[in-house]
Amino acid sequence: MPIWSLHGDGRTVEPGAVVAPGERLAWPATIAIGAQHVVAMFGATFLVPILTGFPVSTTLLFSGLGTILFLLITRNKLPSYLGSSFAFIAPITALNGGNALETPLQITQALLGVVVAGVLLALVGFIVQAFGTGWIEKLMPPVVSGAIVALIGFNLAPAAWGNFQKQPELATLTLAVVILFSVFFRGFLGRVSIFLGVVVGYVVAALTGQVAFDAVAEADWIGLPQFHLVGLTDGTAWSFVPMFLPVVLVLIAENVGHVRGVATMTGDQSINKHTGRALIADGVATTLAGGFGGSGTTTYGENIGVMAATRVYSTAAYWVAGAVAILLAFSPKIGALFNTIPAGVLGGVTTALYGLIGVIGIKIWVDNQVDFSRPVNQYTVAVSFVIAIAGFAMSFGNLQFGAIVLGTVAALVIYHLGNAIARARKTGADDGGPIVPIGQLGGDPE
After folding, report:
1. Alpha-carbon distance 13 to 24, whole Å?
2. pTM to 2 decimal places
3. Is the dihedral of CA 164, 169, 172, 174 positive or negative?
4. CA 408 to mean position of chain CA atoms
5. Which of helix, strand or coil describes residue 266?
């Protein structure tokens, strides 16, 4: 008995209809859509290991395996691709002064933070499965969750500038192409403008002699990915773990948002019941990746764009995408090719990419009509942003606390403690909820 029922004639999607997760089109069409998902995830998934110093092929392998695990744990009812999470870039590169990791020891130390984040995310998933998401919304209301997502992007700004200034002409060209393609193309091509920017920048660099292909020529077409084991017994690695804890909050927000988005687009609100399973699945996938040398994973918004464009939400397409990613992982030549991307190309795309991470956080405020006339909301964001952008850092004994940890703690403490004091004193400085068209917007109460 087939897992998926055939949608209609298997070739077309009627106007106003969608291909549900439990349905599929004919296999040729399903494979073609799965290939689109590979292209959509590729631009972001390969950038993370390039920027962090993790092996590209290993990251692709655990991205594909993670996607299949996700489909199994969510009982094939929630379409999603698990790609490399950008939230891990900042804490990983912090181990090497904001630069990509250079030694196997650094990688094994960073993997411990990935594993701990994955385990915590899975635990949160079990709690959500039992008690729902209400407690998450109280812990991280829109002003806090938006701040945490945004500060991770803005904290990475110096890293973008570091690559940009190495080849400013190539970086400027790449950045211009990313922006131009995002407004020039409509639909799917517009959504993968960062990937297209990398392609154009790379081609220009190759034509102008700025790419060295020696390593690509020497690499085998078929071979095993490069594995690294997590440094569980490394005391120094444990001192870096606190820097990874805010990533868990971002992964929670991304997964919850993904599930809600799919439920809305398919018109099936029962999909929201799988939120806990989605968190568990992403946690397990991240833990597995961290255990053997891959980047932490998250549900991908890029692939939501493909689903929105095609109206095909079939999980069958994601099985195809996961299988293709696994196959690509066993080609060292592909990994070597990605490692030849010049710093200027990376500087151009990350200038846009890291800024876009910040914009995602700001969009959370806009979508939820956060009232920034309220002092609590103002200081929650103001203090956490300065901490992140300036790169504040503290250490207590062997524990290292970077800007993202400090910014996250500041956002949570200022918001919750500030609200408690303001409401006890009835000063009107607390978060009054979404802005309403008519009514008081903070200040002294009437």
Report:
1. 10
2. 0.83
3. negative
4. 17
5. helix
CA quadruple 306, 310, 313, 317: dihedral sign: negative
Rounded CA separation 24/40 (Å):
19
- Give the phi and the psi of residue 333 in degrees, each rounded to 5: -65, -35
The rounded Cα 304 to chain-centroid distance in angstroms is 13
What count of Cα atoms within 13 Å lies in the side-chain half-sphere of residue 309?
17
Considering only 141-155, 343-357, 391-405, which range has the smallest mean pLDDT?
391-405
Alpha-carbon distance of 51 to 90, in angstroms, equals 10
> Residue 418 is encoded by which pair of tokens?
């500030």
The DSSP-derived string for 161-219 is HHHHTTSHHHHHHHHHHHHHHHHHS-THHHHTHHHHHHHHHHHHHHHTT----HHHHHS
- Cα 387 to Cα 392: distance, rounded to the nearest angstrom: 5
Q: Distance (Å, rounded) from C-alpha 113 to C-alpha 88?
A: 9
Domain locations along the chain: 19-370
pLDDT tens for 371-424 read 999 999 999 999 999 999 998 988 877 777 888 889 999 999 999 999 999 999
Determine the distance from the C-alpha atom of residue 291 to the mean position of all C-alpha atoms in its chain, rounded to a whole number: 19
Rounded to whole angstroms, how far apart are CA atoms 375 and 381?
A: 10
Task: Write down the mean pLDDT value for the chain.
Answer: 88
Residues 301 and 259: their CA atoms lie apart, in Å, by 11
Size of the chain in residues: 446
- The rounded distance, in Å, linking the Cα atoms of 66 and 287 is 10
Pair of tokens at residue 39: 């292209």
3 state DSSP class of 433: coil
Q: Which residue would you say has higher pLDDT here, 103 or 264?
A: 103
SS3 sequence of 87-150: HHHHHHHHHHCCCCCCCHHHHHHHHHHHHHHHHHHHHHHHHHHHHCCHHHHHHCCHHHHHHHHH
Measure the CA–CA gap between 315 and 74, rounded to whole angstroms: 11
Which position has the token pair 């990994």? 335
Run of H or E residues at 298 = strand 297-299
Q: Sign (positive/negative) of CA torsion 198, 202, 204, 208?
A: positive
Which pLDDT belongs to residue 413? 96
CA 410 to CA 418: how far, in whole Å? 11
Give the tokens for residue 382. Answer: 């103001």
312 DSSP assignment: B
How far apart are alpha carbons 265 and 304 in whole angstroms? 9
Q: What is the pLDDT of residues 60-87, one digit of tens each?
A: 999 999 999 999 999 998 999 998 988 8
